[in-house]
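Audit log entry. Action: structure prediction of a protein-small molecule complex. Ligand: zinc ion. The ligand was supplied as SMILES and no pocket hint was given, so placement is left entirely to the predictor. Protonation state taken as written. Sequence taken verbatim from the request; no trimming, no tag removal. Recorded inputs:
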Amino acid sequence: MNSILWEKAAEFHGHKCPGLAIGYKVSLLAIKHLDIKDNIEDEDIVCIAETDACGVDAVQVILKATVGTGAMRILYTGKQAFNIFNRKNGKKARFVLNDMKNFDSKEERMQYLLSADEETLFTIKDVTLDFPERAKIYNSYICDKCGEKTAENAVSLINDKYICNSCKG
Ligand SMILES: [Zn+2]
Ligand SMILES: [Zn+2]
């Protein structure tokens, strides 16, 4: 077990939990399956997570697929599934957590996740989603209603006025 990465993920997330272990293990599996090298930079790896739970934090830390660089998106389906794309070599896969037996405690569940082979924890499927382009710089507009500056992809032109998504409701 690569405990350095696990500790890094836990430090970022704030605690150790089964959910974080899922994200840690899916990251290790992605590294193997998508030939992710040590020298990854921002935005080389893109993740579309189908969950917004703890595991997302481990993926952000380990694969450097962060919300701030646009390389981590949440497309919520409520599934423990992660679509991961390696821009360096074009490899991609959807990793879906398999059903697990019930455990008496969170601690037992976490220990099981940490000790199991990544290959037995997840099913690897084809990706059907389109991955986002590299982060774009958007122009901004002042919303005519609230006066706040808003990126162009979140503004609508209504009756010749720029209206932000918050004002549009
Ligand atoms: Zn957690
Ligand atoms: Zn507004």
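Audit: result stored. The chain has two domains: 3-125, 137-169. Residues 143, 145-146, 148, 164, 166-167 surround zinc ion (ligand 2) (CB under 6 Å).
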